[in-house]
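Hi support team,

I submitted a single chain yesterday and got back a structure, but I'm not sure I'm reading the token output correctly. Could someone confirm the output below corresponds to the sequence I sent? I've pasted both exactly as they appear in my results page.

Thanks,
R.
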Amino acid sequence: MRPLFNKVVIVGVGLIGSSIGMNLIKRKLAKEVIGVGRRRANLREAVRRRAVHRFVGVQNFKPLQARLSENDLVILATPVREIIRCLGVVSSKPLVMDVGSTKSSIVKAAEKNRIRFVGSHPIAGTEKSGAGAGEIDLFRKRVCILVPSRFSGKMDAPKIRRFWGLLGSRVITTNAARHDRLLAVLSHLPHTIAYTLVRTVSRLVSKKECGQLAFGSLKGMTRVAESPPEMWHDIFLENRDLVLKGLDLYLAELAKLRSFLLKKDSARLLGYLRQSQKIRLKMK
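Hi R., thanks for writing in. Yes, this is the structure output for that exact sequence:
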């Protein structure tokens, strides 16, 4: 199979960026894969793991772009606010794709700068970070959401759709507003709960006791609190209004459960738990 791209430049070779790079090289989807980043140790690890062929520092990103063509791809795999900053300096000649967890601000920045851009969000990942966390099968049997922009070419979105399909993802297309509304509820709200739950537990139980006795339910619910704080800082702020709406509704549900306990209202408590169980079973 012919490569989809000539050169691919990955800005931010962390978990997602390195996993993409590993696929690009192993599946021969690009002739050359170049990493861009700040931490040389991480970039060297990316080369060692065959996630990139070579790398340059962020200070050399601009001169690198001057040598890119329409057959090349730039992947922005940094925290959301850094993606927005990159869209202010990226070339309009190559195709540009991001992998950020919010889309409205990113697509707006791409369109403002008339970038040939297709937004994407692979719903995949772990709590781990860095090039060393990359996994070749990270995107297999996962959903990837595409959000095309006004300045993407006629064949750009189909090409990116094919790219994610070759990585094993099921691809769906939507607009930025719908993406952010759905992700605020299905991903961002659960992360706020995980971060706050670990802080609550730490005030009630010692670290030693928690380490010795933490059971599956706590570990499962708080696993994502190990995720990179810088990444989630940007996500929460960029999707702030929708996250706040979700938190308000969640706090209202907590208040309802608290009132049943406070009043020792056994019947309403049991009804609440049964109703919640039914809702969860329908989500499978």
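A quick pointer for reading it: Residues 176-204 form the longest helix (29 residues). Let us know if anything else looks off.

Best,
Support desk
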